[in-house]
Amino acid sequence: MSKYSTEEIAVMSPEDFRNIVRKGEWTGPNRDACRGYAFAGLAAVPKEHAYDFVLFCLRNPRPCPILDVTEPGDPHPRFVAPHADVRTDFPWYRVIKDGEVIDEPTDVTPYWRDDLVAFLLGCSLGIQGALVKANVKFRFNGIFNTNIELTPAGQFHGRMAVSCRTFPTSEDAVRAIQISSRLLASHGPPVHIGNPTVIGIENMTKPDFPLPVSAPPPEPHEIPLFWACAVTPQNVALESKTPYMIVQRQGCLLPIDKLVDEIAII
Amino acid sequence: MSKYSTEEIAVMSPEDFRNIVRKGEWTGPNRDACRGYAFAGLAAVPKEHAYDFVLFCLRNPRPCPILDVTEPGDPHPRFVAPHADVRTDFPWYRVIKDGEVIDEPTDVTPYWRDDLVAFLLGCSLGIQGALVKANVKFRFNGIFNTNIELTPAGQFHGRMAVSCRTFPTSEDAVRAIQISSRLLASHGPPVHIGNPTVIGIENMTKPDFPLPVSAPPPEPHEIPLFWACAVTPQNVALESKTPYMIVQRQGCLLPIDKLVDEIAII
Lengths: 266, 266
Description:
Chain A is of the alpha+beta class. The first copy, chain A, contains six helices and eleven strands. The first copy, chain A, has two domains: 6-122 and 241-259, PSTPO5379-like, CATH 3.40.1640.10; 126-232, PSTPO5379-like fold (2-Layer Sandwich).
């Protein structure tokens, strides 16, 4: 466990929180950090694959909204968090080589290369926070793989991962769709409403990407909504047998210097 | 003049209108065509510059919203208008070589190359139509160069071009901002409100990109709004001395198979 409480990390600035991560003082999921700020996932790929990957993101904007793209070898996202270092400031990583996870370090400096381009991609923590702030009632059910095929680009192809939240009333669910629709950098509106089996999720009690938080699956009278999830690029790297990609581990994201509302649409 | 009336082209499908352009039966500005459909501008660049250009567009989403990117040598925008041919279906082109306009043909088949990647970028015709449909009062003042520096990427840099529309009341102007904010593929909300000299426009009676339509400049009690304009890539090609780029001439755009409302946000 960390020496910092939930409330302590909630009121930290992105810079301060990134510093405790960089020092190794926080290594797990961080959804409660830096209240009000937007978060990013990571997909670092060699420059020779960067064009195909940027097209892949453009063709799949729900799972892969692009927040920033670094210059080759540069670990600093100059547009959204210039003082951040993508090699050290995510709490936990996965390193993928030839479509296999070869390591899960908390610092990828040894895996960094001069030809790596880091894509900072949106994540749904912005939606999570906006729903809480608007007093929408829901519970988070976890992250699941689906059968939703993504639009390929070059070598990159695969299926979407989603996060599920369950809403007790239609009013809460509609409000959640309204609120998330303006948050395109946080995956925007849901990609699916209702029956999880329609998108290939058979067991709602067993998330494919375990997180410390969990909640009972939807009851028949409740409405589950499914948002595209920031673990999608690692699914893509595994399915595409990508030569090399560094990603964040589920729930272990980078707070950027922009507020959720600062990069909201409308 | 064309043998087709304004009302005839307004009710044409994008496919039908592209066919009359392809046959050479329409060669000028086409803002009245295909009512309700979205339009695209063009920036075709060699594959070796495509990565820098896609980053340039991502860093400047107001002037350069990306609708589609073709495979090298493929003239068909598979995602937004698969039957369109970008070599023939824009009414009028500019061909730029080493930062100079070398030709202004109505068909760029002779200039097409196997390594060209076509970027289809949004244009403000969607906003124009949405304002008319919502009974917002305004007049179109033309397209102007500005002093607004764009965020560079690789070799690409330059200044934004804008289109100006003047609104008789604050109510009309506010409504225009609300309506255009959801139309990100049509440049989204304005980039400037009010005094044109602030963005380097000295003479509102002399648009830098002449069009057949024109209207008196704003009176002191009126509100001019300035939107990023689809001629920006040609400014960029000229300022960056880009080796090779094919663009559309001002006002000469491609109707795509998507309705304005179909690709609107929210």
